[in-house]
Specification:
81 residues, mainly alpha, 4 helices, globular
Length: 81
């Protein structure tokens, strides 16, 4: 049986490696906004919040550009363990 954390990680990884981006950037924006990147999986994600709202609004081009560094990040893999 999958825990909520297992489902979270699965959906997060699927969104990062999606071949065609539809709403994955919005999903990542929401995840980043939930706790301000304090979660160990997100601690080194290279996104910056909106200065006025402190929320994350990740565009499709930004998501496409920065998802490879996230996947290649050693800290990302270490946080999965």
């Amino acid at each position: 049986m999958q825990t909520r954390n297992d489902v979270f990680v699965k959906v997060l990884l699927e969104s990062i490696v999606a071949a065609k981006v539809t709403i994955e950037n919005e999903y990542m924006s929401l995840i980043c906004s939930i706790d301000g990147l304090r979660h160990p999986l997100l601690r080194h994600v290279p996104y910056q919040p909106d200065v006025q709202s402190s929320d994350y609004a990740i565009s499709v081009p930004e998501f496409l550009t920065l998802r490879l560094p996230i996947v290649n990040s050693e800290s990302f893999y270490l946080s999965l363990v």
